Amino acid sequence: MSASLPDQRVTVPADSADGRAFASGRPRRVDAASRGIGVRTGGRIVAGALLPAVILVIWHVVTTSGLVPAYRLPTPESVFRAGVELADRGQLWTHIAISVQRVLLGFAIGSLIGLVIAAVVGLSKLGDVLLSPTLAALRAVPSLAWVPLLILWMQIGEESKVTLIAIGAFFPVYTTVADALRHVDPHLVEAGRSFSLRGWSLFRTVQLPAVIPSVISGLRLALAQSWLFLVAAELIASSMGLGFLLDDSQNNGRVDRILLAIVLLALLGTLTNTILGLIEKYLLRRWT
To answer: Which of 38, 100, 158, 251 has its CA 20 to 30 A from that of 26?
Structure first.
């Protein structure tokens, strides 16, 4: 005599992902790669925030314990209160907005000119011979050396400040991209020419995709340089901006505001670099 087992059936909704996989006889697959990318990104953020957190704790300990006098290194709380005080007066956001505007304008102008000159120097032997020595000499001029000349030529308006930032942004883009264009694989160029590609079509199809990583590297260096040149630019008889806040706080002995301006410059530089990194990922997917 044989015993029969009860008929046990599993009901799965047909319109669900599990239901479709069950009906098709294929097991459901989990996108492990996407999940791994998310884990790695979160891990990088946590690891990147670890050192600033340690520095903040050490800063708090040495200032609150009296190891360093407050007139030399204020506590993190006093720096935060200085920021709140400026924000309540409506000055903090004005300083930030004006500095960001100057950096973005100077960065855009300097980077665009740098890309154009880099294309001329990197793709043309005549352009290389004519322009490279002069640009190499100008690159060695310190940023503050331009200040008196820009004041003489452009007075003390926004033009002089944006121009100085543009000078700072120009050279990283120019040097990085021009060098990359000089070293594009000649076999790729010949292959493009064999398909009747010339001039702009050859540049857009073959040479530009080959140097996209170098373009992004140059832009990131230019953005960092723009923030460095900002402080020098805002020393040109400026009345607003983070560079002005640094100079004015030094004259008034407000060390808390000096540290506040330094922290804000670091945060803004990191934020803009992160945005440029996202643009880099998009361009690399688009062109490579």
So the answer is: 38
How far is Cα 234 from Cα 226, in angstroms, rounded to an integer? 12
215: nearest Cα among 186, 254, 181, 185: 181
Terminal-to-terminal C-alpha distance of the chain: 71
* Tally of CB atoms within 10 A around 221: 16
Helix ranges, the chain (H): 17-24, 32-64, 76-88, 92-123, 125-139, 146-154, 158-182, 186-194, 199-202, 208-233, 242-252, 255-287
Q: How far apart are CA 283 and CA 219, in angstroms?
A: 13
Calculate what percentage of the chain has a pLDDT beyond 90: 41
Q: Which of 102, 84, 239 is nearest to 161 (CA)?
A: 102
pLDDT mean over 141-151: 86
What are the two backbone dihedrals, phi and then psi, of residue 24, each rounded to the nearest 5 degrees?
Answer: -85, -5
Output the CA angle 181-184-185, nearest 5 degrees: 170
Identify the CATH homologous superfamily for domain 75-287: MetI-like (1.10.3720.10)
pTM: 0.78
CB-based burial, 55-72: b 16+ in 10 Å, e otherwise = eeeebeeebeeeeeeeee
**What is the Cα–Cα distance from 36 to 26, expressed in whole angstroms?**
23
pLDDT one-digit tens code per residue, 80-122: 999 999 999 989 999 999 999 999 999 999 999 999 999 999 8
The amino acid at 184: V
DSSP designation for 205? I
Nearest-10 crossing angle of helices 92-123, 208-233? 140
Residue type, 31: D
Phi (first) and psi of residue 104, to 5 degrees: -65, -40
pLDDT at 22: 38
